[in-house]
Task: structure prediction
Amino acid sequence: MYNKNAESMPQGQIRDIQLEGLKKTVQRVYSNSPYYKEKFDAVNIHPDDIKSLDDLQKLPFTEKSDLRDTYPYGMLSAPLSEITRLQASSGTTGKQTIDCYTKADIDAWAEIAARSLGCAEVDSESIVQVCYGYGLFTGGLGIHYGAERIGAMVMPMSSGNTERQLQMMADMGTTHIACTPSYASYLGEQISQNKELQKRIKLRNGILGAEPWSQELRENIESTLGITALDIYGLTEIMGPGVAMECSHKNGLHIWEDHFIVEIVDPDTLEAKADTQEGELVITTINKEGMPLIRYRTRDISKIYRTECACGRTHARIERVKARTDDMLIIKGVNVYPSRIESALLTIDGVKPHFEIIISRKGFLDDLEIKVELADDMKIDKISAIDAIEKQISRKLESAIGISSRIRLCEPGSITRFEGKSKRVTDLRKDN
Amino acid sequence: MLKQISIFLENSPGRLNNLLKALYERHINITSLAIADTGEYGITRLIVTDPDAATQALKEEGFIVTVTDVLAVLISNKPGTLYAVTKLLYDNGVNVEYAYSALPNEYGKALIIVRVDYPENAEKALAKAGIEMLDSLEGPIA
Result:
């Protein structure tokens, strides 16, 4: 553990810190952010009303749309003079959202990122190759600061230039790689095609995140890269990568509760759900100065585990985010998550985890086409073999997502590989 | 029997061109070609001078390649000779999956490539009836 005292403190002590942090944060946003003052006044809540952690329930939610409505600086609870850093979301789901950090926020972020990297056994001996983009995206700098805090050697590669990534990985003896799961699977594909290179790779663990991914993709990455692939969670609005991280026991991601309070709510009714029920993850920051957020709706579907973890960390765990409500597609009236398609495809022999989803409208009907890439060791001599593969894929997908689709088989290597977050969906219906 | 190589291709511009380029660059000659297509995909079947080299070359280029044993039947270019072959196969319970003819060749006969469900049975039946078949594209006729 990077910070054994903090990571394994008794739950009672965590609750004390949380109550203290919640009171402080509510007071801070009420006094400094006109947006929050107005919002609290509207429901007749005053910072003095927060006397226990249960009082969190009285507070209004913060939505992604609130961040957009107050863009750029309307959510700040610190004067710009105290802000030392700006980061912005990659804008995968619409207009970009930003986060502003004070010096203390940057310090706290490095702390939680260091703890998270510690979950993947990063220590001062480690060589950490960061292939997340550096810049406004939190991925690169977030991991960078965390690894540096631990005293590991950081390789600030940023994203792209796969050939160089592989060369450096082999030459420098990279032990840990931080990137998106889709890029990790691409690197794995490249390495498994080059036996000479494969021998020189010393990777041990992967710190993978920034997009939802499936258990099946994890297994694919672990076998092609020869690593333990661990999931890191974070979002720009809250901080960046390191909000939560999986340990080697892979039974959920430890969320650093002395910095964040997590809840699970029903995304439709916003009613609180029991921790162990699946629902939308809601996060309150309790140690931020620049842009603290109260009950922020993450749009990520998860649940919370509070049982003990064998690693000794006492902080609650959130289930791996397999789906983001923002990613949800409604096709033929049915809710479809791209991650479900990925996990179904990975159970089929002869198919690679590269795919494209194209949705269009024919007349009044939605049409779902899925381009699937075939593995190069497939045996196809007859048209009937093609039909059989298409039918098999189509059946598996229909049972996974509940609707039928047209399968389009593609030659090996023909579907785009992604260096950062993958973009697998083309929805042509919006133009109609 | 001959080794045939089948290549899965997406039915889009340039794909066949890329395939043939890969073979040309390795000086591999094609003696027979047949394409089966479904609109979206095609399967290109080839008889080439060096099927092992061709298979390796195409795999390196990322093509999906399948090697299949096929009968290579040499018959006179006269009415009824191919019928005699199919009748023999039918009488012996062998199903023809597909067949195509090869380019004019040095043997002065028609060369027909036939893929069947039971190649060994078919070969035995045809040999017994005195039908000539090729085991390779060079050397004496089997």
